[in-house]
Design a protein that fits this description.
five-stranded antiparallel beta sheet; 5 strands; globular
Length: 75
């Protein structure tokens, strides 16, 4: 399965498959959430609704609009 990464101005986000078939959203070694799809996880990053205060409250940042703008780092 694919692993996605997004290099934000304040740290690296990863979206990785989980053993239960869901997708985990990781930021700075913290699991922020479990999602039904990689796209849903990427949407929370775009919407700044991850649960990470530093990211979610960041202003004036250029953010990847969907998963197609994330880098695939493993298959």
């Amino acid at each position: 399965m694919k692993v996605y990464q997004y290099k934000s101005p304040i740290g690296l986000f990863l979206i990785k498959p989980q053993a239960n078939g869901r997708w985990g959203l990781w930021f700075k070694d913290d699991l922020l959430g479990s999602y039904h799809s990689a796209m849903a996880a990427a949407d929370d990053v775009y919407m700044q609704a991850t649960g990470d205060y530093d990211w979610d409250s960041l202003d004036d940042v250029d953010i990847a609009t969907d998963i197609s703008e994330w880098e695939v780092v493993a298959r």
